[in-house]
Amino acid sequence: MAWTRKDLLTMRDLEPAEITLLIDTAASLQEIATREIKKVPALRGKTIVNLFYEPSTRTRTSFEIAGKWLSADVINFSASGSSASKGESMLDTAKNIAAMSPDVVVVRHSSAGAAELLARELRCSIVNAGDGAHEHPTQALLDLLTIRERKGHFEGLHVAIVGDIAHSRVARSNIHAMRKLGMTVTVAGPPTLIPPFVQELGVKVAYRLEDAIRDVDVIMMLRLQHERMSAGLIPSLREYSRYWGLTLDRLKAHARSDVLIMHPGPVNRGIELSPEVADGPYSVILDQVTKGVAVRMGVLFLLAGARGESA
Amino acid sequence: MSLLIRGGRVVDPVNGVDGVADVLIELGKVARVGPSLPAPQGAEVVDATGKVVCPGFIDVHVHLREPGYEYKETIATGTRAAAAGGFTAVCCMANTSPVNDNGSITEYILDRARTEGSGVRVYPIGAVTRGLRGEELAELAELAEAGCVAFSDDGRCVMNAALYRRAMEYTLPFGTPVISHAEDHHLARGAAMNEGVVSTELGLPGQPAAAEEVMVARDIVLAELTGAHVHLAHLSTAGAVRLVRDAKARGIRVTAEVTPHHLVLTEEAVRGYDPNTKMNPPLRTKRDVEALIEALADGTIDCIATDHAPHALSEKEGEYDHAAFGVVGLETAVAVLLDRLVRPGLLTLPTLVSRLTCDPARLLKLPGGSLTPGATADVTILDLDRELAVDPTRFHSRSRNTPFTGWQLRGGPWMTIVNGRKVSPA
């Protein structure tokens, strides 16, 4: 299996074998993090631009570290303090950046479809680092790598994704990827945060936290954005955390003892996750962040490195 | 000056005509329709053998963008697009800048149409509320006197039901309908497409069919209350069709239109995030499309209108959720309808012609719509065998925002005649 795509835009488009290749490649690069000298020459002479139109700490840093450990030149372009604040369109900005011949542009944007738009217009490789509520493929890949290391396999695992499914690109990427790899997915949250016809993506739906977390192998909690209240989707944070916050008591009462607790971050402590759970023995949240660097090394390597060599 | 259109298949639904005949035009009026008419001295003869000769097509819903948005379209380019597309008359919506909410703007539009237009008739539609703000009535009597044929805040819905009721009552004596852009602002807030499984997958905010249906229901109730004629613009859902069908059965004065794009495209077209698939109301589901076609065939939907909505490339090339709503339609409508509805047998040719001629003329009490001797000589001639791929670079419109780029279509307009004078081909 060789990587043949110019871009990484969605999990929906990928074949299961491609997903496995991405995870395997990431797994093989993990040990770089443990070295004294954290640098390999794989992408020396390659240029990677991080084009971030939304604030992001973890994802941008993760891509930057990944690129640097592979010896690529990494340039960060964030929307504030750039031409974006002077009213230049995203497409214009991207075309200008492309004119400087980068090998990979990593894009984060609040508009669904933004990465596909750039992929269509630009010749360089595009990595979708999150486009609106659409997809966030590298997050799904790091979640999968984390799960595989802990559970040893994917087939037959049952995952509950809990919270604001409607606005979550993490949920969408994970739903597509997990279904392709033979996992069962239950999404759960108040009905106003469950997108319409989500069952047609092949998932189950639960409207009580207790029902969602029973007998699952993995619980993935999503961040609740505060603006969901002003949009009239939930009455209050207080009520949300009362019914949808994962506490140690609830976990012990309803979940299996070997369950993994995941969260794409940043965590609203005390809202969707109590601190004891976030920091507790079930939690693999920081491990996800560690895996994130490996996954992004793998993605950048396959897009900028392997593709260039075979061409 | 006379014009003899010889040997075409004449389709004139009002008069129940569908057969080969000649059409003689004299002094801007239809003089005679019949077999083998002799050409008067000096008459220009058009050989329409193998073509279809119809009353001039009328589009009751276009945006000509002038005054104020001349970078998108002008009355000159918009009426040239209409002529090329087979339309002999268009009704232009009030959301210009300034808004067509007083008589002087109406007069300006009519004056520009006279001096700059292609010859295609232009009938302005006045705003219901001042500045389209939905707060106070526009000067409706003055607008009617200046020549507005209907009233609409199209592009926005008059959310205040009390104000809308008063608009219906106030305009009753004019004999003009109010045209509803039926869309509940709260249910549709932030939406870029239809709410459904596709919006869920694409991560785009969707508006439910209910956003339209709630307002269609309200406007039917208000039509019943006031006795006014309410015309519903661009129907897009099966539920709205059901409401209209039921209201008509109960004798309420409600009529409706549908656009070509809502008849042939579904939300599936949004995959790929092409902003030329973004319009309001949004593309819906296959089930909705089927209901719309059925309703058009059985007369529940009275007419076809393009909702021709030109936008500059810069407004339609970027992020999907930031792109402007709307697509152009004047130059693709007839070809799309002939190829995708008539050719597969979903709609008969006479029914299509009816929905583009006598039906819209009846709704807005416009001249034309028939080839009755004495009627104004507006004629659209079709070539059912012409094959063309849609090429936006050849549009007469100033804008190119069509979802049909590259579609290979069979059949289309061949000649457009207004007032006895050829306006296309120019």
Strand-residue fraction of chain A? Answer: 5-15%
Q: What is the overall pLDDT average of chain A? A: 94
Average pLDDT taken over every residue of chain B = 97
Question: How many helix segments of chain B?
Answer: 13
- From the N-terminal CA to the C-terminal CA of chain B, the straight-line distance is 18 Å
Bulk shape of chain A: globular
Mind explaining what this structure looks like?
The complex is a heterodimer of chains A (311) and B (426). Chain A has 311 residues and is α/β, with parallel strands linked by helices. Chain A has 2 domains: 16-134 and 292-310, 3-Layer(aba) Sandwich (Rossmann fold), CATH 3.40.50; 137-288, Aspartate/ornithine carbamoyltransferase (Rossmann fold). Helix content of chain A is 40%, strand content 14%. Chain A has a 5-stranded parallel sheet. Chain A has a 4-stranded parallel sheet with strand order 2-1-3-4, with helices on both faces. In chain A, α5 crosses α12 (285-310). The longest helix of chain A is centred in the C-terminal third of the chain and has 26 residues, at 285-310. Chain B has 2 domains: 2-52 and 376-424, Urease, subunit C, domain 1 (Roll); 60-364, TIM Barrel, CATH 3.20.20.140. In chain B, the strands form 4 sheets. In chain B, strands 1, 2, 3, 4, 5, 16, 17 and 18 form an 8-stranded mixed sheet that branches. In chain B, β7, α2 and β8 form a beta-alpha-beta unit. The longest helix of chain B has 17 residues, at 210-226. Chain B is globular. Chain B starts with a strand and ends with a strand.
